[in-house]
Design brief:
This protein is an alpha+beta fold. The chain contains eight helices and seven strands, in the order αββαααβββαββααα. The protein folds into three domains: about 60 residues; about 100 residues, PAS domain (Beta-Lactamase, 2-Layer Sandwich); about 45 residues, no CATH class. The chain is about 55% helix and about 15% strand.
């Protein structure tokens, strides 16, 4: 018979120890799973970071392209050879490029919210108002030529073409200086008038003239006899200077020619 028999474990103590051992096992398994999960999450975060960096690069590239396009548009709009105006229905200037401001001789900031018709000289305002009305009603794309006056300077002529915007609430107007062409047309018209007047004078002196065979006077349309010099002078720009031909010299002054020299 064993003198020191082994004591049976207390059921409560045994359960406590079993629970502690289970807790340890669960903790080890959880730690193992947490490490794998951590690696997976880290991978996802790194991939997401790279995606954000790629998106940022694309946004930066798009921003650069947008800035380049804006700069090109600004150059094309502001420094175009034609003045561009954006007008409201009542003719108020909503926007204008630098060429348009230089054309009318007023700083761009001072042109905004000003009526375009106020820059037009005299009766030409009616022509501009008719053009804007036609543009806003959508009848057709129209144009007109009006006289403007720069502040403190002489007048000049411009050609304005107007068309409504897509929404119909604004009007796009292009303005081009045509003063040189206008002056050339005026010079051409004056030349035509001068030529017509000259042709009329030439026509007066053409045809058959009744002239006296003795005194050489000419009978005009009223029946009066005039000296030939006066008749021609009144009807042309001819000027006369008098002299003696050799035949008349012999007849009128024979003694003078017979004197010894």
């Amino acid at each position: 018979m064993n003198k020191n028999p082994r004591r049976a474990a207390d059921p409560l103590e045994l359960r406590r120890r079993a629970e502690e051992r289970l807790k340890i096992r669960l903790s080890d398994a959880q730690n193992s799973r947490s490490e794998a999960e951590t690696q997976r999450l880290l991978h996802e975060l790194q991939v997401h970071q790279i995606e954000l960096e790629m998106q940022n690069d694309e946004l930066c590239s798009a921003q650069e392209e947008l800035e380049t396009a804006l700069a090109n548009y600004t150059d094309l709009y502001d420094f175009a050879p034609t003045g561009y105006f954006t007008l409201a229905r009542d003719g108020t200037i909503l926007a204008v490029n630098l060429t348009g401001a230089r054309l009318v001789g007023i700083e761009r900031g001072l042109l905004l919210n000003r009526h375009l018709t106020s820059l037009v000289f005299g009766a030409d305002q009616r022509n501009l108002n008719a053009l804007l009305e036609m543009a806003f009603t959508g009848i057709a794309r129209g144009s007109c030529e009006v006289m403007l006056q720069r502040e403190g300077t002489t007048t000049f002529f411009v050609r304005i073409e107007a068309a409504p915007s897509a929404n119909g609430q604004e009007c796009r107007a292009a303005m081009l200086d045509v003063t040189e062409r206008h002056e050339m047309e005026c010079q051409r018209n004056q030349l035509i008038q001068d030529l017509q007047a000259a042709a009329a004078r030439i026509k007066v002196l053409s045809g058959m003239l009744p002239i006296c065979c003795y005194c050489k006077k000419i009978r005009d349309d009223r029946g009066y006899w005039e000296e030939i010099e006066r008749y021609i002078s009144d009807r042309s720009e001819t000027l006369f200077s008098h002299g003696i031909c050799p035949e008349c010299m012999k007849q009128q002054f024979p003694d003078y020619l017979s004197k010894p020299k």
